[in-house]
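STRUCTURE:
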């Protein structure tokens, strides 16, 4: 499924470009059908409907950011009116009693409104496996931490170089899950106009600088790991 030249899995869907899959049971979000989907013997189908704070089979919203850690799902969604909220869910693999076929179920846990300063204009988000209930977002020259349980702002970090804006943030998902990589730049897109910061996440959600590298890139759009 994830090999570069494999054919697309069949179905009427548009998979959101976020890593909301874990282990050997990948699942996705359909931006077109506004629902969670998964691969069922070569075809993408919807997860089962569920009652609660939201219906994973009929979300009526666009996924702005999504991540999964084992069975824990966190995602930032945006409704038709442009209002953003964060959802917490749990993924379960269940089995049909008659056919013994497996299927994926998304269990709603929470839906928390997001109305913090800058959230409407935030373009990058990140969640760490170290604490899946800390949601970080980049806004102008700041990185803000919000609780996905209460919706409260827990911490704000603004110790970047003057005149920069946050381009992209991402937690290390291998050896250092409490390290947040941040790409900043002056917005020009020119070579050497951007810098990279390593920030450490503390137990209360605050961030502190570990290291930074000034004027080493242009605008950062992603981080890739290489050994």
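SEQUENCE:
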């Amino acid at each position: 499924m994830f090999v570069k030249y494999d054919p697309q899995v069949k179905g009427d869907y548009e998979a959101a470009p976020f890593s909301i899959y874990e282990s050997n049971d990948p699942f996705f979000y359909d931006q077109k059908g506004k629902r969670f989907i998964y691969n069922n013997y070569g075809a993408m189908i919807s997860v089962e409907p569920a009652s609660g704070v939201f219906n994973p089979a009929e979300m009526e919203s666009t996924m702005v950011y999504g991540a999964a850690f084992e069975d824990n799902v966190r995602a930032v969604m945006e409704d038709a009116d442009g209002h953003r909220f964060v959802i917490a869910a749990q993924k379960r693999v269940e089995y049909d009693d008659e056919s013994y076929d497996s299927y994926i179920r998304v269990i709603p846990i929470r839906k928390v409104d997001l109305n913090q300063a800058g959230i409407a204009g935030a373009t990058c988000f990140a969640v760490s496996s170290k604490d899946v209930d800390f949601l970080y977002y980049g806004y102008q020259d700041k990185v803000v931490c919000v609780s996905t349980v209460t919706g409260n702002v827990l911490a704000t970090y603004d110790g970047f170089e003057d005149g920069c804006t946050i381009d992209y943030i991402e937690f290390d998902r291998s050896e250092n899950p409490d390290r947040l990589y941040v790409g900043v730049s002056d917005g020009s897109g020119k070579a050497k106009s951007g810098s990279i910061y390593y920030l450490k996440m503390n137990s209360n959600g605050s961030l502190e600088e570990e290291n930074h590298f000034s004027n080493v890139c242009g605008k950062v759009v992603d981080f890739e790991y290489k050994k």
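REMARK: The mean pLDDT is 92.
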